[in-house]
Amino acid sequence: MGEYIVRCTACGRKQPQYALHCPDDTALLKTEYTERRLTPRDLPGIWTFYDWLPVTGHIPIGEKPITYRSTGLSGELGLNNLFISFSGYWPERGAAIKTCSFKELESAPTMQRMIERSGDETLVVASAGNTARAFAEVAAQTSQKLLLVVPSADMHRMWITKERSSETTVIAVNGDYYEAISFAETITGSPGFIGEGGARNVARRDGMGTVMLDAALFMKEIPDHYFQAVGSGTGGISTYEAATRLIGDGRFGERLPVLHLAQNVPCSPLYKMWCDDRNGAGCVSDNNSSDWKEMYTDIIYNRKPPYAVCGGVADALSATGGIMYGVTNREAEDANRLFEETEEIDIDPAAAIAVAALMQAASDARIRPDDSVLLNITGGGERRAREDCTINRLDADIVVNSTGQWEWGQEGEQEWELELNGGRVQ
Asked: pTM of the prediction?
């Protein structure tokens, strides 16, 4: 159990087990597992997919997505084989992700790998909210050292259902997600801190890939089409990689699913790059512009996604004959309303972007009525979670501006020093 190697997608050379980069190029790394067949293990939650996760053990936490066949939304859209992957809280269907986001699929294996590294560093995670919430939920139960860097505008998403760990620190950045990422990178270059790697972390990608694994087990096949809203596009890469492993298994079909990836226009870099849409996808990205602040959901706005790198979004779209969608705020609102009416559960705004893309595809006949379709609802059930669970807010310990200067939390001006959990930033 737990046997794998890490290999560069460009040069093909084997890399160290916990590597994030190849020293010879900028390509993404990928995992290759000794176990070629998908064999569910008698383990809880996400760990049922243990053989295809890059870990050699498992922490006693970590939920998995659930898959079900739609009757409500499928009837409205005229799709006879619509399946939904739901990552959130919906106890009636067995969905138990209490932070209500598929980012928990990333956090559990990533935190397990931190334990395996046997280092005492503080893990640094930049997030627009959902990822930080997922990592904080795990850290609350494992007491691992964690530093979260989140845009101030996204602090309303910072809550967990456990008591906050004393080893978790939150920095709010008065800027957008990219500026939070940039600030986090300055911290990871200091002794005692380590970055989780984002799209370059194979644990995050393979954790997200369990959406496709769970669906394939339920459907008994790889779906013809896959729909998801994306920011960095890492979820699309993960799905493509998981599908290639399923083809290698030999029991789920021989064709890759067509990736249908969606973004919220006008702030939609992936849509712009793939479609070369110079009219509808431009977005002024600086702090003085209100474009990104007026999106239906800014949580999927990433200024610099891993698009053109080897093994990145462009490769995944090309390999699958994929399609990018631009979704307006109005379309997202209509999609959110339709999903809640037909499936009877609330969903995350990002998930509504995916539903809107599915509605576009059905209307434009990009999918046929009898095609098998998997819709990834990447977050949902927050209203139910707030009714059933204790909600603990995570407030910022420190607030900085986009250049890293203190605005609140500790004295300091141009030069400052931050001591957290044994690490030091200067």
From this structure: 0.93
